[in-house]
Specification:
The chain has helices spanning about 10-40, 50-55, 60-125. With about 200 residues, the chain is an all-alpha fold. Helix content is about 50%, strand content about 0%. The mean pLDDT is about 75. The chain has a domain at about 10-125.
């Protein structure tokens, strides 16, 4: 299997140059061909076909010159139309090359910028966020000085507080151990007798 040729932009540039040269060649070739055809048509009065034109042979040189000029003009117009197609193809190839070059340079620049930013982030420690400057406090409007009112009488004196006495904590445990006898119950006051049920 033959090895595939790699991408070479110079080949496209040569192709575009060939198309531009071919456009010029086609235009000139059509003009020359039109001029030759015009000379043949203009030379008809000098040939045995002079009865077709109805002109005397003395006008033969003039008809040759006029035929050549008209043929060159017509050939130039036809050649210009065909050359335009070749120029469009050449410009399209050049435009594609230009796009490829700009995209390549943009990608290379973006990669270089990203690499530089990544290295800068790795090298520099993170800076603490800066706080915005504090705005000055608004001026306080001075209130007009009021005339001192009559001084109130001294508040009545409160009686002295009594000291707080803490009760001693019982040393005996309030819980009885299991199996210990219950303490004696205090006798309950005598309860009145129950009233007899209604309806007995």
């Amino acid at each position: 299997m033959p090895h595939a040729a790699g991408y070479d932009p110079r080949i496209i540039e040569r192709f575009a140059d060939q198309l531009l040269r071919k456009a010029d060649t086609v235009r000139v070739g059509c003009a020359v061909g039109g001029g030759i055809f015009g000379v043949f048509v203009g030379a008809v009065p000098l040939t045995p076909l002079k009865s077709v034109w109805g002109l005397p042979a003395g006008f033969g040189v003039a008809t040759i010159i006029v035929g050549a000029l008209v043929g060159i003009l017509i050939g130039w117009v036809i050649g210009e139309g065909r050359a335009f197609r070749y120029r469009v193809q050449a410009q399209s190839a050049i435009f594609q090359l230009e796009i490829e070059r700009r995209v390549t340079s943009a990608v290379a620049e973006a990669v270089a910028t990203a690499t530089a930013q990544a290295s800068a982030v790795v090298e520099e420690p993170p800076k603490p966020p800066s706080l915005p400057p504090l705005s000055p406090a608004p001026p306080v409007a001075e209130e007009p000085a009021e005339e001192p009112a009559e001084e109130p009488a001294e508040p009545p004196s409160l009686p002295p507080l009594s000291p707080v006495v803490e009760s001693p904590r019982p040393t005996e445990s309030l819980l009885r151990p299991p199996g210990a006898p219950l303490p004696p119950l205090s006798p309950s006051p005598e309860e009145p007798p129950l009233s007899p049920a209604v309806g007995d």
